[in-house]
Design a protein that fits this description.
alpha/beta; globular; five-stranded mixed β-sheet
Length: about 90
């Protein structure tokens, strides 16, 4: 069971990142969908280094795979969320 440091929502035009602390999103960023330099700049802005746990969800599989490949090339751990059953959701 992974507790992500960063959660990601990849849309058609933007990637939204949320930096998590203690199960809560404490900072947000909207980034270009295809700009690894902007992604690296955001990591530096948040002063994040080392291996992080990422949870990545997307409506755009090709963009998701581009980001996941970029992350894994940097030795980051990624959970690709492609179905609701992967999440610990309780529906009341």
């Amino acid at each position: 069971h992974m507790i992500p440091n960063i959660v990601v929502d990849i849309g058609n035009s933007l990637i939204k990142w949320g930096r998590c602390v203690d199960h809560e999103v404490v900072e947000r960023a909207s980034l270009p969908a295809d700009d690894p330099d902007a992604w690296q700049e955001q990591l530096e802005k948040w002063n994040l280094a080392g291996v992080l746990d990422w949870a990545v969800a997307s409506v755009h599989p090709a963009r998701r795979e581009f980001l996941v490949k970029w992350l894994r090339n940097r030795c980051q751990r990624c959970l690709v969320v492609d179905r609701a059953a992967q999440l610990p959701l309780v529906v009341g």
